[in-house]
Amino acid sequence: MKKTLLAAALLAGFATAGVAQAETSVTLYGILDTGYGYQNFKYDRNGADLTAKSSGLRDGTFNGSRWGLKGAEDLGDGLRAIFQLEASVNLGSQAGNGQRGFARQSFVGLSSDSWGTFTMGRQYSAGTETFQGPNGVNLGDADKVFGSVGLGEGTRVENSFKYVTPDLSGFKAIVLYGTGDDGGTWVNRDGNTSTSYGDRGSRVSVGALYANGPIGVGASYDRQSVTGQDAMTSWQLSASYDFEVVKLALAYGQDRHGKLGWNGNAGSYIGGLSEANSKALQTGTDPASYNDFKSNNYHVGLSAPIGGGTLYAGWNYSTSNLDDSVADGGWGDAADNISAYQLNYVYPLSKRTSLYTYASYMKNVGYVKDLTGTEAGVGINHKF
């Protein structure tokens, strides 16, 4: 009797699911990426001889590990309601995005093949979505020299409205606006103490991309209002061409008044390397603290099919004016230009599972003169 009731309940559940499926579709997806990695940072300047080494399990090398839900409901006449919720996963420690919920992406909106897509929530900037590959990973990633093109905190815009045009023979345009947040002040019940919260200014991000056959071209401009200083701006132009034997990517961009959404800050790699030894680190490794900051950024990437997999070679370079005098807000002779090189190889075991290996070298990490970084690793990437 119990088995009969259980079977009936299961059948009823499947029937209900079938009805729901006819109205809307929901997809569970994710990426699990982990392996072994080694990093060695060395600072050798003005009598200092410091190193910072680490090795072990590395998570999210080629793709940040994640899981998510995305869905669509057909509203008729080509109009769909859509949503996406995406959370970080760390296979080694389960500590992704500061333990927040769907911190990678979370939005809802409407989409039409004729009119485009409008969404609201926490979403990627235009710079992230228009940058053309091939590209490297970790120290070899272009986001270590470019602002606003990586996948860091500054390139996911909270409280944002985003519109993407329909695909017009390979062309798309993107417009995003993130509302400012003046923070506000909470006054305690005793009326004598208060807590103030920081201001996050408004964000504007626009871009366009063209992808048709072997050609890919992307461009973007981002502007972030900042309390107490000029707005940070970042623009980039990138292009790629697939010659079949080899695919080439080139990119150039500029940052002003800071590096918006930057993932290359030296302090993010070596928290306490030389607080008392590097003038640059004492002054602050974040160029956003230098209102007159300027940088010019370059990227060259090559990929080619070899031995059933794909071999990548890349070079990233960035010049800045951080070598201005300390009195003017720069770092003086403690700053220099960033130069990074990488080789990596990805071998697919199936459509969803790949093995990879990589090696990188960077000189003047985070613009800190004579701070070098090397790394190497192997891993597995599985998509579901």
Automatic annotation (TrEMBL):
Keywords: Cell outer membrane, Ion transport, Membrane, Porin, Signal, Transmembrane, Transmembrane beta strand, Transport. InterPro entries: Gram-neg_bact_OMP, Gram_neg_porin_domain, Porin_dom_sf, Porin_Neis. The keyword Acetylation does not apply. Pfam families: Porin_4. Residues 7-365 form the Porin domain. One of its GO terms (molecular function) is porin activity. Its main location: membrane. The keyword Cell membrane does not apply. One of its GO terms (cellular component) is pore complex. It comes from the Bacteria. Homotrimer. This is Putative porin. It comes from Castellaniella defragrans (Alcaligenes defragrans). The lineage of its organism: Bacteria, Pseudomonadati, Pseudomonadota, Betaproteobacteria, Burkholderiales.
